[in-house]
From TrEMBL:
Region called Disordered, residue ranges: 416-481
Domain Zinc finger ZPR1-type per the UniProt entry, residue ranges: 21-178, 235-400
Pfam families: jr-ZPR1, Zn_ribbon_ZPR1
Localization of this protein: Nucleus
Predominant location: nucleus
Keyword Zinc-finger on entry: yes
Keyword field contains Nucleus: yes
A single cellular component GO annotation: nucleus
Protein name stated in the entry: Zinc finger protein ZPR1
Feature: compositional bias, Acidic residues: 417-427
Length: 481
């Protein structure tokens, strides 16, 4: 066993390090090679490869070279053609990969940097590995796995589209690459606040903390909320789990409704975020608002994008899924700037250079360059374009540039029926509203219940009459007999 690690840096392989390390198979010294790499659209990772010349054991893994992100992330991608299997994926050692079509889950394990075809192939190979043994010892399990293996083969052969996959990582360090060719609903990313149990899993908290966030009392209870007044609410930072403060302020949007603007700043780690919360009853239908932007004045319109709203622009080739930006109350220009900043940060470095590593294909770079060029021109009102907010809860708003109740010719508002998928995502399918109706609705419910009782009583009376008639007929028939 070596008494110290020996690190070698080959000047011809910049960034490649070789570390002499212990082989866990034969306990001789093997060689670990580490290559830092920057992935386009993502961040830095470490590719690690171990090999032992004594016993032949080898192993490969991927680890995040960055910090744990402030929020967890969940990517959803729908494969629609064979080319989609080439989509790049990073599975961190805390990421859970799922193939939703067959309810197959790949639990957290050694990290991987590959494409979807490689990940599917690995799952199929791992399942097939011990099938001969299962056939002899666990026939039922063998047969059940054969069904899954056959489905995986069909997927890889391109005969089982569409295929929906997800990767959920509480550390925020897993990733599926986006593309400018993604169609509506094909690609989605959702960032979420980690639970206390997930923070324990990542080593950010301990059981002794007892979930500080859960112990925080409602600081607004019994308080008469006043417009323009700023209220401070204690909470825990989602990035470092230390105590911090949420500043909340209620404001009224003319011709719309009241909203709560919230901002969080952590003095411990510097984490910052802002959000807008809307309230009110759940409407029967969603709302779709489309604004035609023609001049600089239109860029200055106030716009409220709720956290449930999707942002789209056909002219710009832009689509932002619900939950990606959270709630935002800003201007049209400000909203586009936030979209650009977030998306540009995923694809390019902060200095504007292309992310390194395996390098982005020139054709792909040209597509992204064209996209950002058009977006930059739109933010200067050099091109006319459309902006659509599609909100299943109808909590989004675009300012009109006309007086009173006049119709703005540049704004089109339409209601639409929510899909079953949207209702499920919003939790509306499982919502129990019995006993929570308004006064008028409660009267209607009580009237319907009374009507049902009268119908049941009438049916019961008719039933008794029919029974009496039947008994009489039977008696008469017996008498005649």
């Amino acid at each position: 066993m070596a008494t110290e690690d020996v690190v070698h840096a080959d000047p011809n392989d910049v960034g490649l390090y070789e570390i002499e390390s212990l082989c866990m198979s034969c306990e001789e010294n093997g060689m670990t090679r580490i290559l830092p790499i920057k992935i386009p659209f993502f961040k830095d990772i470490l590719l690690e490869s171990f090999s032992c010349e004594h016993c032949g054991f080898s192993n490969n893994t991927v680890k995040s070279a960055g910090e744990i992100q402030a929020k967890g992330s969940r990517y959803t991608f729908k494969l629609q053609q064979p080319a989609d299997f080439q989509r790049q994926i990073v599975r961190n050692d805390t990421g859970i990969f799922r193939i939703e079509n067959i309810d197959l889950e790949m639990p957290p394990g050694p990290g991987q940097f590959t494409n979807l075809e490689g990940l599917f192939t690995k799952i199929q190979t791992d399942l097939q590995h011990d099938q001969p043994i299962r056939l002899a010892t666990q026939k039922e399990l063998h047969d059940a796995l054969e069904v899954i293996i056959d489905k995986l083969k069909a997927m890889l052969a391109g005969t089982a589209f569409p295929i929906t996959v997800t990767i959920d990582d509480p550390s925020g360090n897993s990733f599926i690459a986006p593309s400018t060719d993604d169609t509506h609903g094909q690609y989605a990313r959702h960032d979420y606040i980690r639970t206390h149990a997930q923070n324990i899993q990542l080593g950010l908290a301990t059981d002794d903390d007892n979930g500080e966030a859960d112990q925080i009392t409602d600081a607004m209870a019994g308080v008469n909320v006043v417009d323009a007044e700023i209220y401070e609410l204690p909470t825990t930072c989602p990035a470092c789990t230390k105590p911090c403060t949420i500043n909340a302020k209620r404001t009224n949007i003319p011709h719309f409704k009241e909203v709560i603007i919230m901002a969080t700043v952590c003095d411990e780690c510097g984490y910052r975020t802002s959000d807008v919360k809307t309230g009110g009853a759940v409407p029967e239908k969603g709302k779709r608002i489309t604004l035609q932007v023609r001049t600089l004045v239109d860029l200055s319109r106030d716009i409220l994008k709720s956290e449930t709203a999707a942002l789209k622009s056909t002219a710009l080739g832009l689509e932002v899924q619900p939950g990606t930006l959270g709630g935002r109350f800003t201007t049209v220009e400000g909203l586009l700037a936030q979209v650009r900043e977030q998306l540009h940060g995923q694809i390019f470095d902060t200095d504007g250079d292309l992310a390194g590593g395996d390098s982005m294909a020139s054709e792909t770079r040209q597509q992204w360059d064209g996209f950002f060029d058009k977006l930059d021109r739109a933010m200067k009102a050099e091109v006319e374009f459309d902006v659509t907010l599609e909100d299943p809860l109808a909590n989004s708003f675009v300012q009109k540039n006309v007086d009173g109740d006049e119709k703005d010719p540049q704004i089109q508002v339409e209601e639409y029926e929510r899909t079953d998928e949207e209702n499920e995502e919003l939790g509306l399918n499982d919502m129990n509203v019995e006993g929570y109706e308004s006064g008028h609705e409660r009267e209607q419910v009580e009237e319907r219940e009374a009507e049902r009782e009268r119908e049941a009583e009438a049916a019961s009376t008719n039933g008794h009459a029919e029974d009496d008639a039947a008994a009489t007929a039977t008696t008469t028939a017996d008498g005649r007999a």
